[in-house]
Structures are given as structure tokens and as C-alpha cells.
User: What shape does this take?
Amino acid sequence: MDLIKKGAEADIFLTDWDGKKAILKARKKKNYRNHILDEKIRKQRTIRESQIISDVKSFGISTPLVYFVDTKKFTILMQHISGTLVRDMSKSKIIELCIEIGKIVGLLHKNGIIHGDLTTSNFIFSKKSLFLIDFGLASRTAKLDDHGVDLRLFKEILNSAHADIIDKAWSNFLKGYTKSVGQKYCKKIIDKVSIIESRGRYANVV
Assistant: This one.
């Protein structure tokens, strides 16, 4: 088993399951929390993440298959997706894929789920399909504010990691998002993102 990513909340390992490559996500103990509370939180978040990963498939979104959930060790064993992170693709391909990313995010929001960590590192292009990964911060919410924060994060990522293509990428993202949620809701979200940007906690990037 090889450690491939160290995170604040969990570590990601490359392992195998039934002769296939697999990903093991292990939630970390937080020493500053009460032991009983810490275990309760890690258990709840492990269950919630595995359920959301599975549930969003019913919306037509590609996510890794969940093989096994261990609520005592706070781990999720899931399918390894072999492909290319959108972050590492050509500028023209990123711009093109932003339409599909927008559709996917719109489907999430339409069904009352936010991802919580929308970055081009959490989308993998594999066998002509776009997979969404890492639902560790995902939650169920129909609140416009929460959906707006989700979009604002993605816009911020485009500005920091793909600044030279942000205009075209963001425009395509909104086209895809509109296809999933409709023009009326998309307009509300764009207005909400503008409000969030004006609060001062965030820099106005466009």
C-alpha cells in the first residue's frame, strides 16, 4: 500500500482489491478533539461521503465505485480511476471540458448536493468520461447560498490555476450549468456569486 496524497482530513493510499488497483481513503484522528467526539465525527463523515459517492451515480454522474466501508477504521475502499486530471490537460481541453463540468455541478445542485471542493484536480478524464472524485467535504443542501459558495470556489480555482483561460472556461462552465438547472436558477446563482465576491472575504477575480 502506497501513500499517494496526504490531506488535512484524510490520507489517500494506492492499494489493490480483488486483483485490481484501488484507492483507500483513511480519515485521520484529530488529537485536539475529544476522543469520543472525534470517532463520532469521523464515522459520520465516512458514512456520508460513501453514501453521496454512490447516490450521485443515479443522477448520471460518473464517480468511483465504493467497494467497502469500514466505520471502525474510518476508511473507504473504492475504485481507482485511471486517467488524466483535468488540471493537467491542455488549455483548450480544459476550456472544452468546463461545459461538462458545469453540467455535472448543475446536476449535483439540482439534486440537493454540494461538492465542497470543486477544483480541476477533482475531475478525472478517463475513457472519454469525466469522473468526479473526493467527496470528503460534500453535503446535502438545497440552500442557494451553499450552491453559490460551491461555484465561487470553482471560479477562484480557475483564476488561481488557469488564470489565462478563466474567461472562456468560466463562460463554458456556466453554459453547462445552465443546461442542468435552467436559466432562471443559473441567474440566481450568478447573482449570489457576485454578492459573495463583494463581501470582502473573497477577491473579485473577474
Notes: The chain has two domains: 2-79, 84-198. The chain is about 45% helix and 20% strand. Strands lie at 2-6, 10-17, 20-27, 66-70, 75-79, 84-85, 113-114, 123-126, 129-132, 139-140.
